[in-house]
Amino acid sequence: MRAAPIPVYSLRSRPFGQTYGEWSATWWQWLLSIPKSRNPLDDPTGVNAHLNQKYQNIFFLCQTHENTVPHIPSRTVTLPAGVSIFMPIINWISILNIDGVTDQELTEVANKRMDEVGNLEITINGLNIRNGLEEYRSLSPFFEVWLPENNIIGSRPGMVRAVSDGYWLFLKPLKSDTTISSFGSCSSGLTKIGVNYNLYIEQKDI
After folding, report:
1. Higher pLDDT, 4 or 41
2. Of 9, 100, 163, 199, which cross-links 170 as Cys (Cβ 3.0–4.6 Å)?
């Protein structure tokens, strides 16, 4: 990741007071709280990207559903200058009583899904990065999240317990327009996830 045109927070750091794993739990709480009809996960253009964003200095971006490649969405989002981006390359969430009935089972399922990842790739402002992305894998602590009606996992609404494993990037504050394309797949190539973002940074009037 040394060649990245935009600095990335180290996996061992605590950006804005939390670890990568803790931010991944917060990210899932953000994404799962939004009904499917307006969820950024199903958004082809980026029009829903600003929904439920609660942090002044951090902006969450999401991937899309499995196996959308080669129909990768291209989303356009306008952001304030100086915001940091937290987003997955590829990830998985295990939910109690769906993916297992104990915490150990949930963790094992999440780990297994990410152990199968074989291809990671991200392009930032035209520079393609493949080497070193495996270092950005992080397991979340267990967390609870409220699922609304018509949620993206198709489960009944209510509070659920979950854990996540995945590969994440936490970009340091953006100062200029940025393009990001990311791709991840399992080693067999059966699961493929990709997304393109065109990020436009608002410049303050002088």
Report:
1. 41
2. 9
